[in-house]
């Protein structure tokens, strides 16, 4: 049997080795990738919030009495000055009425005494003034002493103070009479036509958000009757983690979504409340949060108070920013990193990043525009891993 040429044996051996290497080579890992690109970019703080009436009016009863049955329901529209409630002063019992009548008689008697006292004080002042004028004339003629003139001046000052006191007593008596007459309002329960009905009017155009008293009954002064929106103006309140809220400033742009409509509602941060509060999360963790209040600029007609919304507050933005998908980033001891794909092989690349968003993150250094990076890298990916992918828009 003829021997194979030496060179042919070497060739066959190399072919076997290459074949074995190809067969034993691990399959490339399938990954999702995206490109490092320049784009308009905005850093945002996002959370859920709710709409609420801006400076709503709580309409209360100014007096105690019998509230007539309200005619308004929640959701009804009202205009400024419209009568929204009527209250009849509470009728008094016989003992209370007798006390009020006696108080009125007493006040009228004090008024008579005050009028008499004022008349007497004015008369005394007039008499003292005349005597002082005569003593001053005698003093100029050296017919009386300076001490006597000074004594009459003091009497004049006392008489003038007496008039002031009498006038105060008269005003007090008049006020007592008015107070006593107020106690008698509605005391004649037998004559319903004589009872004066008090009308409560709406302080603003708007919508009735809440009806506190739905039936006729006796109420106390200060009882809340309605909550009415102020010109149907709405605002959004969102409670942010304090570490997120420190990046927010009044005047920041706000985008409202998730309210049920298709379009984005624009807004602007009005103010951040000065005091934070503790809130327990769904996982049972205590969090320090603070309310951020947003003014809505283009409110849809079909949105009302206490609607749940998604709030996105823009804390920084740029028009031409080098960005990487946030899902391509991960942290190691060296800091932020990403996997860059070069010639079908993964290269671990450290990064220096800037502002972060939910979808994209600003890149300061580490990758260049057009680089291909792995998004959502799994535990199968590491330095030198061979990968295959289908590039897709992200």
Characterise the protein shown here:
The protein has 394 residues and is an alpha+beta fold. The protein has four domains: 28-40 and 319-389, conserved putative lor/sdh protein from methanococcus maripaludis s2 fold (Beta Barrel); 45-53 and 231-318, Elongation Factor Tu (Ef-tu), domain 3, CATH 2.40.30.170; 57-91 and 192-228, OB fold (Dihydrolipoamide Acetyltransferase, E2P), CATH 2.40.50; 94-183, Helix Hairpins (Orthogonal Bundle). 27% of the residues lie in helices and 37% in strands. The protein is built from four helices and 23 strands. The protein has helices at 6-24, 94-140, 146-183, 242-245; strands at 29-35, 37-53, 57-60, 65-67, 77-78, 83-89, 198-201, 206-211, 217-219, 224-228, 234-241, 253-257, 265-272, 277-280, 286-296, 308-325, 330-332, 335-342, 345-350, 352-356, 360-365, 372-375, 387-389. Strands 2-11-15-13-12-16 form a six-stranded antiparallel β-barrel. A hairpin with a 2-residue loop joins strand 17 and strand 18 (335-342). Helix 2 packs antiparallel against helix 3. The longest helix has 47 residues, at 94-140. The radius of gyration is 44 Å and the shape is elongated. Mean pLDDT is 83; it is low at 189-193.
């Amino acid at each position: 049997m003829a021997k194979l040429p030496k060179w042919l044996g070497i060739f066959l051996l190399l072919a076997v080795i290459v074949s074995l290497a190809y067969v034993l080579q691990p399959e490339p890992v399938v990954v999702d990738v995206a490109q490092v690109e320049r784009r308009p970019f905005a850093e945002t703080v996002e959370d859920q919030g709710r709409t609420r009436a801006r400076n709503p009016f709580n309409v209360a009863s100014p007096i105690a009495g019998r509230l007539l049955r309200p005619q308004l329901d929640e959701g009804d529209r009202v205009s400024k000055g419209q009568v929204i409630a009527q209250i009849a002063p509470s009728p008094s019992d016989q003992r209370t009425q007798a006390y009020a009548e006696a108080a009125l008689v007493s006040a009228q008697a004090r008024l008579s005494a005050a009028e008499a006292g004022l008349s007497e004080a004015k008369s005394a002042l007039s008499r003292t003034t005349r005597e002082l004028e005569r003593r001053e004339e005698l003093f100029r003629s050296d017919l009386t002493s300076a001490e006597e003139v000074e004594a009459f001046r003091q009497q004049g000052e006392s008489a003038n103070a007496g008039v002031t006191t009498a006038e105060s007593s008269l005003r007090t008596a008049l006020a007592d009479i008015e107070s006593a007459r107020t106690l008698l309002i509605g005391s004649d329960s037998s004559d319903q036509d004589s009872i004066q009905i008090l009308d409560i009017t709406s302080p603003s155009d708007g919508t009735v958000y809440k009806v506190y008293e739905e039936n006729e009954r006796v109420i106390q002064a200060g009882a809340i009757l309605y909550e009415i929106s102020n010109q149907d103006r709405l605002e959004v309140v969102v409670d942010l983690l304090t570490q997120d809220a420190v990046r927010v400033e009044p005047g920041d742009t706000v985008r409202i979504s998730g309210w049920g409509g298709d379009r984005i509602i624009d807004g602007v941060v009005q103010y951040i409340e000065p005091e934070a509060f503790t809130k327990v999360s769904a996982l049972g963790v205590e969090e320090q949060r603070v309310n951020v209040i947003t003014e809505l600029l283009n409110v849809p007609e079909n949105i009302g108070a206490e609607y749940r919304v998604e709030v996105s507050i823009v804390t920084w933005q740029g028009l031409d920013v080098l960005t990487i998908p946030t899902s391509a980033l991960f942290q190691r001891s060296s800091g932020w990193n990403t996997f860059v794909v070069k010639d079908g092989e993964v290269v671990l690349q450290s990064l220096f990043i800037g502002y972060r968003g939910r979808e994209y993150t600003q890149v300061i250094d580490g990758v260049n525009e057009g680089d291909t990076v792995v998004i959502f890298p799994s535990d199968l990916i590491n330095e030198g891993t061979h990968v295959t992918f289908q590039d897709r828009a992200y």
